[in-house]
Fold each of these.
Amino acid sequence: MIIVLKPEVSKEEIQKFSESIMAKYDVKVNAWYGTHATVLGLLGDTHEVDIESIAAQKIVESVKRVQEPYKKANRKFHPDDTVIEIGGHKIGGGELQIIAGPCSVESYEQITEIAKRVKQAGANFLRGGAFKPRTSPYSFQGLRAEGLELLLEAKNLTGMPIVTEIMSTDHIDLFENVDIIQVGARNMQNFELLKELGKLDKPILLKRGLANTIEETLMSAEYIMSSGNEKVILCERGIRTFETFTRNTMDISAVPIFKRLSHLPVIVDPSHAAGIPWLIEPLSLAAVAAGADALIIEVHNDPTKALSDGPQSITPDQFDNIARKVFAAKQSLKNIQ
Amino acid sequence: MIIVLKPEVSKEEIQKFSESIMAKYDVKVNAWYGTHATVLGLLGDTHEVDIESIAAQKIVESVKRVQEPYKKANRKFHPDDTVIEIGGHKIGGGELQIIAGPCSVESYEQITEIAKRVKQAGANFLRGGAFKPRTSPYSFQGLRAEGLELLLEAKNLTGMPIVTEIMSTDHIDLFENVDIIQVGARNMQNFELLKELGKLDKPILLKRGLANTIEETLMSAEYIMSSGNEKVILCERGIRTFETFTRNTMDISAVPIFKRLSHLPVIVDPSHAAGIPWLIEPLSLAAVAAGADALIIEVHNDPTKALSDGPQSITPDQFDNIARKVFAAKQSLKNIQ
Amino acid sequence: MIIVLKPEVSKEEIQKFSESIMAKYDVKVNAWYGTHATVLGLLGDTHEVDIESIAAQKIVESVKRVQEPYKKANRKFHPDDTVIEIGGHKIGGGELQIIAGPCSVESYEQITEIAKRVKQAGANFLRGGAFKPRTSPYSFQGLRAEGLELLLEAKNLTGMPIVTEIMSTDHIDLFENVDIIQVGARNMQNFELLKELGKLDKPILLKRGLANTIEETLMSAEYIMSSGNEKVILCERGIRTFETFTRNTMDISAVPIFKRLSHLPVIVDPSHAAGIPWLIEPLSLAAVAAGADALIIEVHNDPTKALSDGPQSITPDQFDNIARKVFAAKQSLKNIQ
Amino acid sequence: MIIVLKPEVSKEEIQKFSESIMAKYDVKVNAWYGTHATVLGLLGDTHEVDIESIAAQKIVESVKRVQEPYKKANRKFHPDDTVIEIGGHKIGGGELQIIAGPCSVESYEQITEIAKRVKQAGANFLRGGAFKPRTSPYSFQGLRAEGLELLLEAKNLTGMPIVTEIMSTDHIDLFENVDIIQVGARNMQNFELLKELGKLDKPILLKRGLANTIEETLMSAEYIMSSGNEKVILCERGIRTFETFTRNTMDISAVPIFKRLSHLPVIVDPSHAAGIPWLIEPLSLAAVAAGADALIIEVHNDPTKALSDGPQSITPDQFDNIARKVFAAKQSLKNIQ
């Protein structure tokens, strides 16, 4: 961490300030006295240093981090890829997985039919929403506990591990048999929820928030990991920009950046990123080309009857085609490397 | 609601679709058959109509709302300003209130000293963070329950109603004696939390999310209100944009827009919007000129020692000066109208 | 175009308004009288209808386009892909091209050496900046006319068609022997320049502006095309968002969207989109997977000595590797379809 | 300027690099050797140092400016406010000016009638568009040279100095008798145009670009000033964000920030920032409260017949009311200080 001090600061003040930092954190402080400004360098493990508190000091002009503020999620301290294995299927480590299923679980017939279809097409994980975050209180809020039951029945029937979203710490007990718990974009900085999920021994699929930076996403992963649960899967699902043609703007660069900065698996959700069914194929191929470890795709047996998020779902037939192409593309790309 | 159908749709399909809408919602459907397209108009109370489910239908080209999707927060159905009175002080209805206090409650001495100082300067409400949403798990997370206790002691000592942030439904019981419960920007779409706060009989200060539109903010207010609690205060606190000079971009237009679309009181947080102490005065004056009912300002007796968010706090002396100017400006603006 | 009128409008006013529209534009107006609102539908060729002038009418509540506002760039009126052939190389129509070269032309040795190297690696087009748009007036502004001369010498030596940016109508004569004239992101809405380029018989590479929507980009293409020059190549090069890790956010979705809405060729500039050399490979692969017709990549023989934009350039050796992979990926993707 | 070097760099490399910087720029380089990293500090006038070229060096980890990259626009080197006086009216220096008039000049009757009305209400400058930047080539492009003629006639008739937009260096001669030449948001980084305007002895009203930062706006001012013309007026007119209720998001913070960083006058355009007539009054009051030196407001005698941008214009009667309020508010705010 580099601290630029204001021009007029006395040596004594600098001395006192340096000592206060060393007393509080496990770092060494070196000073470089320039003609116009003094610069302090903090050496050691600075990830616990509160940058805002430093910046608030009267004598400080500006502060700049040199090290990343996350540690457990940081590839520098964990060079090998984290691979998360569930039911014999690996997320991370070179394989490509597809997580597929409807936006909302609606009925036994719906979820089991879709599960069978997407499994045939090569998806190893079943997704489905039970608790649904909806902008309007008047929109369908999901089948909630009943939806979880139906998902578990589909899991029993097909053997597919299930992925579903949690919206409150109050519901954690209900998620006992869920294989991967999803934290949605709107809860990415629900820190109380993250801390509780950090106490579980279960993979957490963490979606990047609509207005959150790559670094903030890694800091939210750090919340879960520093509470004890290191099985975090990062998910790019589009950010908010001025462009209105797509619902969100899928930030494809986030995939290679997450992979470089962190050892955690990285997946992409082209369904929510775009909100347009005909974009799912090109965006899935692009995600695989950019290095994604998995895709999470919404599939509905009858998108026009979906109780939520219908417009962005594809049919099982369309999914067959996309799955075939992305697995083939993944294979080709492996051969090219 | 106007539904544009695709060109090739048959009259029979249109008939069937219209009937299905009328069966599901309390609306009438009128069709206008053009040469190139058919347009349906939904008449009646459309705020419960699920626009996404309509848009997902195969025969639909696009959908456009004519009415707002919120009802209880809508000025059309409640033309008079909502005025929330707490401890004899009104928020809304033409008065200007200032809510002031430190970012984080740190000690008895700190919170009571600041409370006395800001009260003298004209602030009628005391703010202070007990549960703190911090990007990093390694940053100070607030004194939590102990912080609430200290706030209540400051309330007892000064008679000032208190405002503090809630971060989880798990903590609701702890907030029993809090006068105004704040929902932070990161939890604006924590719908499970909103629903629970909707069951209380206590004012809720709802901060606009960093990446949330004005309409989404009103929909979150609607969550609280439709659960039974109509005492919602809207707060503009800056949105995320590409500009990096300020921490966020304060959307001053949101003030008159909220006031026009809704009857709820509207307040502005210049401290978080900008993150720069010397911007608090001009932004406070601008907020008052744009019609804000209250300001919420961070004041710390020693900003350089603040445990969180120090850089954006001002001292009690600076606050005295700002409070004097904004009250005077409010008075002048009243005379001008 | 659908026009929703305000509730209280009389039949006479509607009649008069409808007639005024029909008198001004070549369209028919149909009215649908609802209980709460009247809706007008404009049938015919509405791309010349000024939506803002309609929206300004006192009796109008809101207006919604059903048709796109561009015509010559619109795939609906030109279903087949536009293929632009220069020096025997096709841009569009299924092939993958690479345009490569330095950010700025610096010397004869530099430009010819890079040209030879990128040609060997499979690039068919040479890029290089002569007139440079720089944020600071104190930064290197390019060799200007001399830079164009050097580019033409490299063209003569290698036979590669050249691509370079124009910044003013004053320079058009200088660009006579340039094969593809580039309009940079900052000039995408320099309409006077677009009109003049529309009078040439030469391909124009139109870069999407930093804050411009997909539709606005197509409208700028329409400026060139409606002036007579239909040889426009669209280029996605990243948009401005809140994310600061990358210089811009590459909007990968723009590639399939441009291809669907328009018949024009679509290329991607991963160098400027990211501003980070190690992102060029994954972003290039993603662009090809998403359907891009060409890539434009900055290559410098000594990026650390580049006079502008050095940080985002790669070396010829790195380029060899990337070119090999993207051509192989393109071939595999063709086989998969 | 602070340069953080990569960990593994040798002392010799550092020496060589430092010398190369001192040879190229008029600065001194000091090195501070830490345990994990070496930091270089550049002392002296760094505004000509090309930060990108420094960042491109292999041995450089990151670079951070301490000084601003603009000099002539910088308040540090010019502490007193720049005041621009035209026709006896001052922009800057404590007065409030209003520039008013139609979006487009349409006819002699229109422009002269509006000019007389806004003059009566207290506006000292007349605005009107002759060359119009329109997104669509099919929209009205302004009366162009004829529009300039009509503006000059209105100037002769009323004595009001005129403000109008230039779109190309080709038109500079036509603007000889224009009092203030406006550079529109879309041309803020049309650097060739800025350089030419820098050769004139005439005030330039520089509008901030839709996606441009405050610093970039000051750099564009620097282009004009470093070419010799120091009469630049900065204008905030809204930036592009995700919010769709308003056309743009007016960045009110830009006003006090521009005033602090620069000595140049700062004006606000509430008409374009919002695009909604009923927002002009609250946004104008907010701009004045935040410290704006002038407002530029669109007024049309018949907004529903305006040939461009009608929806955001107000009538002369509405303008009378707004002008009265903003002048009164300005007077009150002066008394409060």
Note: Chain D has a mean pLDDT of 93.
Amino acid sequence: MAPPGPKPPNALTARRLGLDTQDEAMVFVRSDSPVCRSEGFSAHSRVQLTNGTRSIIATLYQTSTNLVSDHEIGLSEAAWRLLGLVEGGQISVSHPAPLESLKMVRGKVFGQRLDDASTRAIISDIVAGRYSDIHLSSFVTACSALPLDLAETIALTRAMVDTGSRITWGHAPIADKHCVGGLPGNRTTPVIVAICASLGLTIPKTSSRAITSPAGTADTMEVLTDVDLDLESMRQVVDQEGGCFIWGGGVQFSPADDALIRIERALDLDSEGALVASVLSKKIAAGATHVVIDIPVGPTAKVRSLSAASSLQSLIEKVASEFGLAVLALVTDGTQPVGRGIGPALEARDVLQVLRNDPDAPADLADRACLIAGALLELTGKAPSGTGKAMALNALRTGTAYSKFESICRAQGGFRPPVLAEHYRPFLAPAPGRVASIDNRRLARVAKLAGAPGDKAAGVDLHVRLGDTVKAGQALYTLYTQTPGELAYAIDYVTANPDIIELTRP
Amino acid sequence: MAPPGPKPPNALTARRLGLDTQDEAMVFVRSDSPVCRSEGFSAHSRVQLTNGTRSIIATLYQTSTNLVSDHEIGLSEAAWRLLGLVEGGQISVSHPAPLESLKMVRGKVFGQRLDDASTRAIISDIVAGRYSDIHLSSFVTACSALPLDLAETIALTRAMVDTGSRITWGHAPIADKHCVGGLPGNRTTPVIVAICASLGLTIPKTSSRAITSPAGTADTMEVLTDVDLDLESMRQVVDQEGGCFIWGGGVQFSPADDALIRIERALDLDSEGALVASVLSKKIAAGATHVVIDIPVGPTAKVRSLSAASSLQSLIEKVASEFGLAVLALVTDGTQPVGRGIGPALEARDVLQVLRNDPDAPADLADRACLIAGALLELTGKAPSGTGKAMALNALRTGTAYSKFESICRAQGGFRPPVLAEHYRPFLAPAPGRVASIDNRRLARVAKLAGAPGDKAAGVDLHVRLGDTVKAGQALYTLYTQTPGELAYAIDYVTANPDIIELTRP
């Protein structure tokens, strides 16, 4: 009789739990699983999972019920995808080697500066999914408690570029724009792309979907056309039209950034260095050579003071120059929402009104789009200094921008008109007054409670602007929702927050 | 026909997933659940769960499979317990109010000092389970990056005491001891309790189970007697015998601390202030008046330098005096394990050998126990200065300590002898040499791979000490395991780490 062979590796049968944990790799095993017993794993253990040549680190949880059997391991979608699994496949589970880069995070916590090598090691491990939320949070917090200096910000930017995919276009200039955010309805991107592309500038714009806001540019444009294009289709659209507005989710320009942003949001911590690295790394990876960055400033915007904006501006310019990127950081008014609509379809309506020169078009959205498009035209040399905005306005007024917008939509799969939600309720001024303040954050919250961005047709239509005089009973804004239930829910919040729009005696 | 009533709250049927997540409240809902749609929840959303008058905050994850149905919500054990649920119960799910105390964590991150009120707010929210791992990690990191000063450490200690349960004994002195850890086999507690109680000192000792180590004192004592006593039974044992050795898990002396320790461990971050608050808050809550703290120092112990030990000593003394606690912090040798056994049953054997004055008893364990017991006897005034250790040694040598040990075991439910594991394998010196170093951390790891503390009988028996001269083929240590499979696994690790015990040419 043969002697007993060596113990097989800790193999378990993979089971897909269909669990959306964003980028976090989570696995579930039985408490009485032989793997837990032999390896001494307990709840929150970090484990190494191996499927053939692929290997990741995940957080393990234990269950005593039949969620999984004792020879199975249940995986979150992120873990399933990273391991390239098929149902019933076998994976082995072991203790991970200690993460060397965590020593560098600890070094940062204890006051050491991050250099290029340590930053790259940290970011590479984050991209490979080797950091738990606890590790990510520690890194993000350390970068705020002991702020990144210029050299560290440059190192972080470089590490983020180097760990993602990168596009090259083979010619220059390649224009791009970004808004640091926090302003509901600030949907200038489709207008800017249409204007710039109509004037011969190449502007291959990728945008995000909303994460905490009521709409991202990709959500808004998806109301009007297809935005989920792959890189090859994107290239075709850009080669033909000079511009595009597609969802950037499929193109992993800075995968570490997604993980860090999720943590920053949970902590409501914005480190200036991390923000600059995040923005610029994505632009560099997208092949941009000339970028305008919109920094709205206001008491309820992301950047709340002119001094913070000025410090951010300066850091952006210094880091960009290190990468040969021509950048203009514009400080803009962030005291109230832009346009009228807040929510994908309502914003899409505003965008169309502006492009079509509709008499009802929100003038502030048109003006802001032309300001940024003009800055891009000047930065890339398409317009002499001081003439960019007028050139942009002309493209808008003559309809060439709208023609270009229609062409791009056709190239992306066709145009469709926006449809608003069935249920609506205006919210009225309780007394006459003058609009003294509009709370961007809480208004965004109302739009989300109404169903945006999940329900593209839902949101808020804002009827007033700062300084307007209103009569008692005049509508301040209107809620749009898909169901009476959601309407009731949003009304509850609005009723409990009557000062979202503050009126003073006229 | 009645008009449609108001929308019911977001009610879902609770389903117990038997999921061990330690103290983390996690819930699982379908992506297409009406609650997700109407509330806009996504993966990692923090949600408020309400069951009658009980309400907690949990982290939500989404699933697309039939893990739960679309009108169910699956809960981790921590969430289930905190909400006091029964199977099939209904709970409502909503957006939690913003946590005010997170502003204070952010303030700390940005350099503000924590005062009593903000520390209490943070710790109260942690105890109530309102912090996610991301929040906890940020707080722990901030306390390391911008170290707690004396006032902050006192505030943290006070907040931890005030948020847990607290015992009073009605008389003084009440003795206690603590070891800051990191030294395998350092099982002095049962010996110290037996000595002190035999000499008339009240020492109501509660101990922890192992979390990352191969054995906690509670694991070791559980080999010999019952340790899972409630507070009432503990009082009876202490009233009758003057001492006890029970598991402290049932008595929530400092519930915030469990959450913080889990995070500190994951980050391998030890903040001096957090450590002192953790240790002292538990002693104060347990009603101790006189405490000796053992600080082992060595290159592979928790505290690695004499200067770190001295700084820790000074902070312990200053904070303790603020609470009227008499404390002596002893710096001890942490260069190698204590005794021979590493693992519950092996350590229990060592403890018995010492108490029974067995000729084979490990002298270092006896000496260390008498040193600490002596310090406690002097600190409480039971022994004149300079005579404590001799008094302790005398109690050991005359057998009165062993009699007391037996009495306490009887009072706790009876004594049972330790049994070692069936499978064992000695690990031999490859060449003659002198023992130059012993790696505490990796040796603890070997004991865990062998099955400790889950298998109480498993572990490592260490046969050499620093400075010993060994022949080629002489056993350095022996692995004990319950199964041949675990033995093979531990041998793999030992083979890959031949330098756990370093030999130099004799």
Note: The mean pLDDT of chain B is 91.
Amino acid sequence: MPQGVVAGSIPLFAGHPSPDLLPIDGLQRIIRSAWDAPNVARFLNYGDEQGDRQLIEFLVERLNRAEGLGICGENLMIIGGSTWGVGMATQQLTAPGDAVLVDAPSYRDALHIFRDHRLEICAAPIDDEGIIIADLERCLRKLAADGVAPRFYYVVPNFQNPSGITMSRERRLAIIELSRQYDFVIVEDDVYSDLRFEGAAPPSFFDLARGENVLRLGTFSKTLAPGLRIGWLIASPDRIAGFVESGMLRMGGGANPFTAAVVADYCHSGVWEAHVQWLRGQYRRRRDIALKALEASMPSGVTWTQPRGGYFIWLRLPSSAPVDALEEQAQEQGVYFASGKGFYVNPADGAHHLRLSFSFVPLPDLRKGIEILGNLIARMAE
Amino acid sequence: MPQGVVAGSIPLFAGHPSPDLLPIDGLQRIIRSAWDAPNVARFLNYGDEQGDRQLIEFLVERLNRAEGLGICGENLMIIGGSTWGVGMATQQLTAPGDAVLVDAPSYRDALHIFRDHRLEICAAPIDDEGIIIADLERCLRKLAADGVAPRFYYVVPNFQNPSGITMSRERRLAIIELSRQYDFVIVEDDVYSDLRFEGAAPPSFFDLARGENVLRLGTFSKTLAPGLRIGWLIASPDRIAGFVESGMLRMGGGANPFTAAVVADYCHSGVWEAHVQWLRGQYRRRRDIALKALEASMPSGVTWTQPRGGYFIWLRLPSSAPVDALEEQAQEQGVYFASGKGFYVNPADGAHHLRLSFSFVPLPDLRKGIEILGNLIARMAE
């Protein structure tokens, strides 16, 4: 169970994959067959700081095939998951007192990382197409007036955590334009893009900017298993070399040689694409059930996003239902969600928001948890 | 093969375990049996930021039993290997421009980490009992005169990398005294202590200081397999809580849930102690062969340490044999060693030193490599 989960409760806060979505059989097959004596050093000894070669090769080939990126092995390194990559990027690109740009709301763990690095965090609000460019420009002009150059803009571009929103192509292009004008890097935390349920994906920032001044993070946490702690970073060859060589990011023999080799063999065996395809159906079904339950249970005045992929739905509560009061009452009934307050630089901005995760809880609990929340919100309006 | 190894060469530089010392059968048994469906989330999902509970429990019990430490679960967290821990400690305890204290020579990757964090590195020489206290005091007085308080003293206390030296109990006590007087932390990178071939171990800094202001790092890299990337950090409960909560050290669900669970189950099955016992015999044999080969091959004027454990022997070359010239000639004959220059803040201090690792190469290569070096050094004296 995720940390902090009370037995018997409905943890709608948990951004974990449901245990039945973890490919235990497939991974066990790989681990049983691939790991023989001539191969053992690749699994068990120190590796290369850039990461498992066969996994790098697989990812480069896949990204070039699926997106026409045109990257090579020098553009990619293996990392211990994407949150870890956000920490790495922050460590490498900033010093205490520097400024970074984020969406409001934004990924909670990223805000925590930026705060503990003692950065000035400048947030601009999002709408259904992502960050609002006029507001971002206002941030940038204000920083410029103070003589501050922001180091990077951090974004989850697809099925954003917490809102589920995907940023439009136009917004991406406008941000790339601003990144050139104001000289900041774009850190693209692209963890959910493989879990698209419908519609076409806009090109990545990395693609649109032709790889210039973009760090793009990816992960196997959502499409294989978080416990393996394997992700990747795509950037220009000189940036990758800088990360690999940096004493500040020393991993001691590359990111997780054992699990990286397992993931590489799993992917090379050809079963990963089918697994991702299957997962898309599973998560789409979960999303549909959650949206249907919201439709059936929520009183008027509550609005929510319609994510086309990923793990999350973002709710806006009516003024009669402050999230703190709802949280207290919901927990009494065993329902836990992620309060909107954790996703804002200024927590009060999230006082009428909450994030529901449809990825983890059993389907009956998903319906029941949403129904309980709907009843509580309705009662608060009385 | 370790990174940078030329096929057919004798890589006496490699601080890797020899592939035949990796417990492939034992680990495969664990991975095949322990990882069943009710257990799968522990292996494959996000874990607790402090690390796998069962591994924490095992380590606490073992350290209390073997050393009488008297620690509890709040004193220990799981990390992704000890080099990673050095990075964590540096990140958490220092800011650019701060000073740290090290041995001369010291672990090369630690120096790399400190340098890239833009720290002032103050080194004092070692003798057969570890750092020379009078020289360390001179460093401290000089820093104090400049108004600088060093943040920590970094040391590999047992079978030091690169020298193989173990610091005496008296020196440890003197350093703890100084750490109180000058208010610095001791970072004890205790990676080799389980590989003791003979004699009794002095108590750890953590033990002698009753856990006050000591961070002690341990690892399974030397006694199980580096590719699993599992180590641990012991410190006071408030320091551990600080590390676990810190956004600067975010791992995204704890250090490597999959391999941590594998290691925990391996250890709990009771086979680890026997494996460590067996490894001690294997590495002792390798050490003996290396020392015998040095005795037989080295001309007069070459001296070396007599490590009682660990991986390394440290050679001092005569003035006729500068390490740069020897390195060039040795590489022409396919023999690679670690030049002494990488282990000093001021590389020139290592211009007549080299580190031999007896952990990795096949035994005939160990003898042959040392013989080739002996011949080259003898010829340089002619």
Note: The mean pLDDT of chain B is 94.
Amino acid sequence: MAELRFRVRFDAVQLGPGKAELMEHIRDTGSISAAGRRMDMSYKRAWMLVEEMNAAFAVPLIASTRGGPGGGGASLTEAGAEVLRRYRAIETAAEVAAAPHVAAIAALLASGDIPKQK
Amino acid sequence: MAELRFRVRFDAVQLGPGKAELMEHIRDTGSISAAGRRMDMSYKRAWMLVEEMNAAFAVPLIASTRGGPGGGGASLTEAGAEVLRRYRAIETAAEVAAAPHVAAIAALLASGDIPKQK
């Protein structure tokens, strides 16, 4: 099916593909700066997004130690893992629910245009 | 529930909230420029979006007469009405499907933050 890009807007924070991907890279690399580099995102911006998420939730989504001998490190907290899992579940649920309508729109496109595969 | 903003990406065109709203205003005002004004969108940009949509689909979504004694006019074609209807259906279906996960994320927000109503 076509690619469905979306973000969820709460009063305190927006969650979109950038923050979700950043959380996944933090989980996988154990580092906010390494996660940012994987997305061509500056260290400063990666930290800003982490701080924005942590401030919006009752408990931080990302635990981190800044600098230090080992160069610092970061990981998802239980709440962070939960938010990430729910975000990806929203994505899947929305895509499945939207699929028949997306296919109907795709059928109206010029020259048998095939919707993008994810 | 929280506001879910999304866009559907095909190879030839992306459909998002801006194009959907523009189509609704064209339907309601009978004019591309009036539709653009309602969205604080320049005449040029409104036309560009219309031309982009019309080029991507097998039949135009918006029929228009440019200028002329009556100042021109525009309306949704049958295909345009169908695409708009399907876009709004995607929105509704996605929101319903996502609702339990959105609520679960909302419950983790600080200070009992209430998700934005649409």
Note: Residues 48 and 70 of chain A are 22 Å apart (CA to CA).
